[in-house]
Amino acid sequence: MDAAEAVEVIQHEMTAFARRARASAGRMHPELSLVSYTLLGHLEESGGCRATDLAAHYALDKSTVSRQVSALERAGLIGRHPDPDDHRVQTLHLTDAGREILAQVTRSRRAAFRERLAGWPEEDLTRFAAYLERYNAGTAAD
Questions:
Q1: What is the pLDDT of residue 30?
Q2: Beta-ladder partners of 80
Q3: 79 and 95 Cβ atoms separated by less than 8 Å
Q4: What's the pLDDT at 27?
């Protein structure tokens, strides 16, 4: 296989991976889409941020993030707090319920990955992890 063919295979397999991830998100927790799960994860990692920060970080349209944020608020998974440095700005934070749902879904996703990768040798897992980190560290536009 030459480099051009390899890139085509990678594109095809990454598309299949994304489709599978979206489909499995609904099975992990029916009310939590993959986008919602991702946003909750970022809020947990960052300790809270503005909706515009979420949109910028994930290169999503502000209206998409706004809809997701509204749904997460209605579900009681996130709340808004005044920014201590600028009270005109509100930051989004996980609620206790949001932390619990995120933890449940994360445990389920990790178990699914472990099951899918169970037969892989440790060397392959390590190499695959390094390749994914390298790929995701790239700065090219998606």
A1: 66
A2: 92
A3: yes
A4: 64
Rg of the Cα atoms in the chain: 18
The answer to whether 72 and 40 have CB atoms below 8 angstroms apart is yes
Contact 124, 117 (CB under 8 A): no
What separation in angstroms does the CA of 128 have from each of 19, 65, 82, 125, 134?
19, 31, 42, 5, 10
Residues with pLDDT less than 70, the chain: 23, 25-31, 139-142
Alpha carbons 87 and 136: distance in angstroms, whole number = 35
Angle, vertex CA 29, rays to CA 70 and CA 52, nearest 5: 30
DSSP-based three-state secondary structure for 91:
strand
The rounded distance, in Å, linking the Cα atoms of 26 and 23 is 6
pLDDT recorded at residue 53: 92
Interval 124-136: pLDDT, tens? 999 999 999 998 8
Rounded to the nearest 10 degrees, the angle between the axes of helix 3-28 and helix 34-46 is: 90
Strand partners, 81: 91
User: Crossing angle, helix 62-74 and helix 34-46, to 10 degrees?
Assistant: 80
Please tell me the distance from the alpha carbon of residue 54 to that of residue 36, in angstroms, as a whole number. Answer: 11
